[in-house]
Amino acid sequence: MIGITKKILKKLGEKVGVCKKEVNVLLIRDKMTADSTLGKLYINGEYECETLERTWLDNQKSISCIPEGKYKMRFRYPRESASYDYLHLLVQDVPNRDYILFHIGNRAKDSRGCILTGQTRKDDFVGLSKKAHNNLMENLTNKGERAGNINLIIKNR
After folding, report:
1. d(C-alpha 22, C-alpha 143), whole Å
2. C-alpha angle 88/26/148, rounded to 5°?
3. Domains contained in the chain, number
4. Does the reported pTM lie above 0.70?
5. Cα separation values, 102 from 90, 92, 118, Å
6. FRET partner for 151 with CA separation of 20 to 30 A, picked from 22, 71, 72, 128?
């Protein structure tokens, strides 16, 4: 009887967002130019979108992409931000950096060290950023029950 009750509670919890699922996000940086770093983003092994960051400048605040590594992420709500009036992601515990976000933008100049998303790309540019960002938030919400445990791994190719 206890086993059945636990199963029912787990299913119910998943429906209302009580049970938090773990989501793994992988960013593979595959092209570096003098002005930007381009990559591909995967959620639980499935391709999600293109990414654009600033180029690597030794992790300098506001002008460099962040180091390769493993990070935790969480949703950041519009009420928490003076700049973004939409749901976005906060990358946590980045060495010597604060407020590294996943947000909408097309070029490196749209970022102060954050990660931009797009559905298309060419050198130093991601296109259809708003659409890609909204899809990313929806997919993470569905896979991670909005408040779930989101892991980010960044690798350079």
Report:
1. 8
2. 50
3. 1
4. yes
5. 7, 11, 11
6. 128
